[in-house]
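Can't paste images in this forum, so I'm doing it all in text. The chain is below; anyone willing to post the predicted structure tokens underneath?
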Amino acid sequence: METINKTTKRLLSASYLNITFDYASGHRWVTFHEDGGDIESMYEKLEKHKLHPNTKVYGNIIDALNFVDYLLVKMSEKTLEQRFDDFNNWGFDDEFVGEHTCWEDSGTENETYFQSRV
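Text version of the structure:
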């Protein structure tokens, strides 16, 4: 199976923590959204640790992801990439994808299916 790159892992894990990234005024902005779901959001983790970071990041998306990792480690939490591996690779394993299938080409649903969901 093709290896899933580090940035993809980190972005998927960030979404699971209800984190979004934006670009405006020459900066990256990290937004920690509140979440009422079953998993503790990054916002809730930061509140619990009484951390209120400046969410403007100078640099690119990797710098923004590194900032999130820094905050996670500061709270004695696993990094984004480590979290991805704990999520059973988000279903990107042979059980769901099929042995030796490039995961980026692994989707099985088509437009008819998607239309039925609208």
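The chain has one domain: 6-92. The longest helix spans residues 61-74.
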